[in-house]
Structure prediction request, 327 residues.
Amino acid sequence: MSLQSRSAITAIGSHLPQRILNNDELSALVDTNDEWIVRRTGIRERRIAADGEFTSHLAIAALRDLLSRYPTSTDDIDGVLVATTTPDHPFPSVASRVQEAFGFKAALAFDLNAACAGFVSALQTANGLILTGMYRKILVIGAETLSKITDYADRSTCILFGDGAGAVLVERADEGRFLASHAVTDGSGGIHVYASGLSSDWNGQPLAGDGRIVQNGREVYKWALSTVPDGVRSLLQDSGLAAEQLDWLVPHSANLRMIEAICERLDMPYERALTSAAEYGNTSAASIPLALDLAVKDGRLAAGQTVALYGFGSGLTQAGLLLRWAI
Prediction:
């Protein structure tokens, strides 16, 4: 749908754990090798949080990075939204830990779980809050410590996942930069990517993994390729833009081979996709802000460019946002 907007992203930051787990190290854990992983996923390494390092630590560090690069008053921060599937605790929220760390005086704070679509869903939510007129300055953070729920004996999943965090500041703006929005969910496909919790069954079917990530990669791949290109086209149609007017596509960095196939179906050069998987692996809700910040740092992403963010994953859920980059 076309999007009423008074919002713009005005700052960005990111943070990665120090430990790097490369493909050669993984080959000592499971039957795999660097060539096999790169050929199938494009991933070369991923970051792994330390034993005592959790999602709140990464989120707080990403926000500190943002504030060091884009100095701004924090006195008027009135919202903190953290997109994550791996909170430190079921409750209190990671967002409340961020509030505690920075001492925001009057901030709405909550976590949002839409898995790999979480960061874009949180941006959509922030824009909606700003449109109410009651909020002006909202922090949106995508942060994950997926290594803590990854089964390192399962070759199909352990090669994929990593840890990291990205943060943006969304502010009320005279000229709204959010141009179009899209969201769709097919809950019947939730069985294809899950981690069991309080319930260990799905509609009466026992779940595996004992709280660790379980994924049917073949089914997720088929679903993404058959639906994501149409979602991106919907964003463009609702904004009135042609595909050639899009400067960058920023899909969830699940698997670079999947992204190549999505770009092919969109008749879009793969070089116009911003990704973070090669360096950081699949970081779920953090993958899109990490890709954005990589492109900001190396100069590819610049103010005035048109960018389509598109998250997709467990749920099965998708969230897209077309925006004009403002920083």
